[in-house]
């Protein structure tokens, strides 16, 4: 790693940006009673006893005089659901508080709702900090929720995923000497997770006298009805299953799909029973997801989805997108 001693501002910024932070909105009230607020990630804890926190404000911020003259300000640690709000409070000239619901706090400083944590503060000290002013506040009240916190890293919003306190066996077990196929192989992890999540669905399919093959066909028709076998196959291809005339005849006999003949072309649609069966499967899949999200925690479940979507994009050999606009 090359050590930089000259201060190229961009490189310095980039180096500082590697320090991953949460994102806050800090609010106060101007003398004329108008609400003022900015997005800030310079927030940090200072002291537990007395309880104190700090943050720094750029000297060219329009809100500087208000924060400098005001006595009270509130720090809102934003949740992953509040990224849009963060963007709004980071822009000058917007009506930042338009349609924002507020709680009543212990001071006149606006108190935002639905945050991960909130600290209601009174200015204790202000320090010169180069092109910023450092505000140190005494915390007069605080509250927090279990909403996942929004993170910020290298100029981009991020999601924080917690590592387990003790290492999972998966990552540490050495592979058997004759085989380099470890428990840590991404394909194995994905497959194992997928098949375990399908456990309950397989039982439902058995009760419905169906199998995974039928499940894929019904799910595709539930999203895009009225398809030929060839079209069905383009959407089912990623599963490795091949839809045949025999598959469709079976579902027709079960009265789950019906054919519509137009000259030479045969298209398949879901019957009311087919839609019902598919919706039951979807409801179960959602219940399984809810159960797993509760075990992982909402923030980690959200982070997992982001990574899986990136994985799907990164591994896509060019298959059609079932959800793309027609
Ligand atoms: C994630 C993020 C973190 C930020 N952190 C700070 C900060 O700590 N201090 C600061 O002065 N500006 C920070 N900014 C920029 C201000 O939010 C932005 O300049 C804002 O428009 C200032 O508002 P004002 O000029 O209306 O006072 C941050 C912006 C973003 C997107």
UniProtKB/TrEMBL annotation:
This is Flavin reductase. It comes from the Bacteria. GO terms for molecular function: FMN binding; riboflavin reductase (NADPH) activity. SMART domains: Flavin_Reduct. Residues 16-159 form the Flavin reductase like domain. The lineage of its organism: Bacteria, Pseudomonadati, Pseudomonadota, Gammaproteobacteria, Pseudomonadales. The keyword Oxidoreductase applies. Belongs to the non-flavoprotein flavin reductase family. Pfam families: Flavin_Reduct. Keywords: Oxidoreductase.
């Amino acid at each position: 790693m090359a050590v930089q001693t000259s201060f190229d501002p961009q490189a310095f910024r980039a180096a500082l940006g590697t320090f991953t932070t949460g994102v806050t909105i800090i609010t106060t009230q101007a003398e004329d009673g108008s609400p003022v607020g900015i997005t800030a990630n310079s927030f940090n804890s200072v002291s537990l006893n007395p309880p104190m926190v700090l943050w720094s404000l750029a000297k060219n911020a329009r809100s500087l005089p208000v924060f400098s003259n005001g006595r009270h300000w509130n720090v809102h640690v934003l949740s992953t659901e509040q990224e849009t709000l963060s963007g709004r409070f980071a822009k000058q000239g917007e009506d930042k508080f338009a349609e924002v619901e507020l709680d009543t706090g212990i001071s006149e400083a606006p108190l935002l709702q639905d945050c991960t944590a909130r600290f209601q503060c009174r200015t204790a000290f202000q320090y010169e900090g180069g092109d910023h002013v450092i505000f140190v506040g005494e915390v007069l009240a605080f509250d927090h929720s279990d909403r996942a916190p929004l993170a910020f890293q290298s100029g981009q919003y991020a999601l924080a995923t917690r590592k387990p306190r003790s290492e999972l066996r998966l990552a540490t077990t050495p592979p058997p000497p004759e085989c380099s196929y470890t428990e840590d192989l991404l394909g194995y992890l994905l497959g194992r997770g997928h098949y375990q999540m399908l456990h309950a669905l397989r039982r439902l399919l058995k009760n419905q006298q169906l199998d995974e093959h039928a499940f894929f066909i019904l799910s595709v028709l539930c999203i895009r009805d009225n398809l030929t076998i060839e079209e069905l196959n383009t959407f089912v291809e990623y599963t490795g299953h091949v839809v045949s005339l025999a598959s469709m005849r079976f579902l027709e006999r079960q009265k789950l799909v019906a054919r519509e003949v137009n000259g030479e072309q045969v298209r398949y649609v879901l019957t009311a029973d087919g839609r019902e069966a598919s919706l039951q499967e979807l409801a179960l899949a959602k219940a399984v997801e809810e159960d797993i999200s509760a075990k992982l925690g909402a923030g980690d479940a959200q982070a997992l989805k982001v990574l899986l979507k990136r994985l799907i994009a990164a591994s896509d050999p060019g298959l059609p997108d079932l959800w793309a606009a027609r």
